[in-house]
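Record pair follows.
FIRST:
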Amino acid sequence: MNPAPNLVLVGPMGAGKTSIGKRLAARLGLAFVDCDHRLEEVTGAPVPLIFECEGEAGFRARETALVAELMRGSGQLVATGGGAVLAEANRAHLKARGFVVHLQVSVDQQIERLARDRSRPLLAVGDKRARLEAMAIERGPIYRDIADMAFEADGLAVAVAAERLGALLEQRWQRAAVTP
């Protein structure tokens, strides 16, 4: 058992961090927090508008501040944005107070899941496949390095993925007592 006060889902966009995370949090009795949604609540602006006005660097700075704040809490399942792991500070916060699960998914599955999603600024390109493949090359090693465990979500329905991951977590993760 690996104790940590929070459970954290990392992985590429379209891996199911939000949809699987919501069900998994309910199953495990945790509060669910989606970093991108929380950032939208705090700023009053959708992620694409933040990217448009502040650029990716501005968005990432806001994301880093939010991750630091969230990880001071406990009893949460935190679904990060796909790029949250790019900042070393985020990785340190996530590892210090979270049991990190890498949701793995193929580029084909990402394309299928994101086909109608227009809210992804990093996919506002002509060749989405090439962009997703490039991000997988860049981010894949980081996801693997930070993760306490990996879970293959490719081709699984949300309910099935949440149930299987929940069963695995019952063996691998123990919610730690809150530490000051």
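SECOND:
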Amino acid sequence: MRHVTVLGATGSVGRRTLELVAQFPDRFRVAGLAARGSNLPLLAEQIRAHRPEAVALLDRAAAEQLARELPAPRPDLLAGPEGLVALAAEVKADIVLSALVGGAGLLPTMAAIRAGRTVALANKETLVMAGALMTAAARERGVALLPVDSEHSAIFQCLAGAKPSEVRRVLLTASGGPFATWSRDALERVTVAEALRHPTWRMGAKITIDSATLMNKGLEVIEAHWLFGMPFDRVDTVVHPQSIVHSMVEFIDGSMLAQLGMPDMGIPILYALNYPDRLPCPAPALDLVRVGSLTFHAQDPERFPCLALARRAGVAG
């Protein structure tokens, strides 16, 4: 039995994680849940379904409301940034899945690492903000950082058994987002609703907007640099509209390994939760005949400058 704490339980990755945990009751048990506090009805439902030992909310007022509304017996309730840190560090879990969006995930993720917990990382902002600190702490504590982003999970799998000296570069794929074929003039009239319609992935609002501008891919370049110790000039990107090839690794002999699968976050989530063993994921099977063709092309830095800006920021430190 593997005990799991989920940071960001009510977000898209957190919800998918708990769905998967529920499908493998003999393999996983929820130890703790954390959320910002913006969706208390869903969190209350998750608490009833999974019966965690403790729950933490970033919003103190939301924590007080939850305490009033939850019937007994209820889990230990923690509040504020220090509550999230305590949950990540003190609740006994085999793995902490970090899926809080933005800077809110940094301190509890660091606390989980320092407590010796394996971390499944879905919050790329933590590595962007503090990659040097996080990776150093993970090395010091002997903690595994398991990527949940589909691209980094793909690279992680392709690098299995490879010697660092044999790797020429890693290649992150990008769908191109909803505006991949739009002209620069058309991009000036984009609406929020249009930016939130990602062609292949169903994600939270922030990452969907970041994907539309390719800022998300820029953050993923920085994430890959820290996760895999790869110099920035050996982390490349390519637009792949079908989102079937999740990323690739090129080796010094000219060969390339790629990880393919349907665009379903359940696959990398379950791989991280049960690493190093695989479980049957309830995701659609990939039918390459039905897909028909896989295409790749370079991104346009004139229309999508965020990727280059993020890379420059990463190089500058």
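COMMENT: The chain has a mean pLDDT of 94.
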